Amino acid sequence: MKKKRKPLTLAAALDRFVLQLEADGRSPHTIGQYRRHVRLLTRWAKSARVPDDVARIRPEDLARFLASGAARTRPDGRPKKETAVNALRSSVKTFFGFAARAGYAPSDPSHLIRRAICSPGPPRALPEDDARKLLATVARDRSPEARRDHALFALMLGAGLRLGSALGLDVPDVDVARSEIVVRRLKRNREDRFFVPRKEMALLRSLVRGRTSGPVFVTAEGRRLSARHAQRRLAEWLSRAGVERHASPHALRHAFAMRVYAKTGDLLLTQRALGHRSVGSTLVYARSSDQAVRSALEAI
Asked: Which residues of the chain have pLDDT under 70?
């Protein structure tokens, strides 16, 4: 008599999927996004009375999910951008592709899913005026925490580092003589050297003076500053600076990239400055201003 298969719930399959992602060296940010998206599907499946068994999910179940308000609206009720829904589609396809290849499902129910054709919007960069207000406000406070924050935000604006890469810096990674830093926490576990302008390097030199080891950016207790703490600090400083619009730490990197491209017009130079492996990732910054288009047309 054939033994009856024990159902593998979506939650249990997600745990195995996350384990595989960790084994593959995927970044915590990427893993976190997959986890959020599959959990969203799991909650919807429960409310829609879809079987909680990864082997029994059908293509039409996934189509209903991706067409539902759960997939297409934000928590505040506003519609999601199509690029955000595309990210959700990609997560669903990757998750069920894994389940099918691992033998948890007889077939891949996501094989019919296609990404919508849409162009990405412009990067949400911190405007230059707001960046100046931010740094000026932090610089006026001489507390140890403010000096740390000033060096962190100035580094991200001046050298284009991602928040995780900046917070992962250790004191030996800072080469004051060459005005460079070695970043060991890039995507795909790569490392690279980044050039740091003299003004920003002076802030780093002052911050690490007298230390020979340990993290560059630390809390008052001496622990490495976390991304969540840095995000809160940025929000607090922007508010004190009178900047009303919300800006994530990544908006500082976007501001750097847009400034470099605007001043040089060189896409490959911008790619190198950002540490992108593919120039395709840099193309989002290659946007001509209205004035540039007007000037070009007048010159024809």
From this structure: 1-5, 119-121, 185-190, 287-296
Q: Is the dihedral of CA 111, 121, 282, 199 positive or negative?
A: negative
Q: Where are the alpha helices (DSSP H) in 5-126?
A: 10-23, 28-47, 59-67, 69-72, 82-101
Report how far residue 150's alpha carbon sits from residue 145's, in angstroms, rounded to the nearest whole number. 9
- The rounded distance, in Å, linking the Cα atoms of 68 and 92 is 14
Token pair belonging to 77: 């009720």
Q: 3-state DSSP call for residue 218?
A: strand
pLDDT, residue 287, reads 67
- Predicted local distance difference test score (pLDDT) of residue 179: 93
Domain range for residue 265? 128-291
Do 89 and 166 belong together in one domain? no
Specify whether the CB–CB gap between 91 and 37 falls below 8 A: yes
Q: Please tell me the predicted confidence (pLDDT) of residue 124.
A: 87
Identify which of 66, 58, 100 has the alpha carbon closest to the alpha carbon of residue 85: 66
Judge whether 102 and 117 are in contact, CB under 8 Å. Answer: no
* Assigned token pair, 198: 């003299």
Question: Nearest 5°: CA angle at 269, between 28 and 165?
Answer: 25
Give the pLDDT of residue 4: 62
Same domain, 49 and 139: no
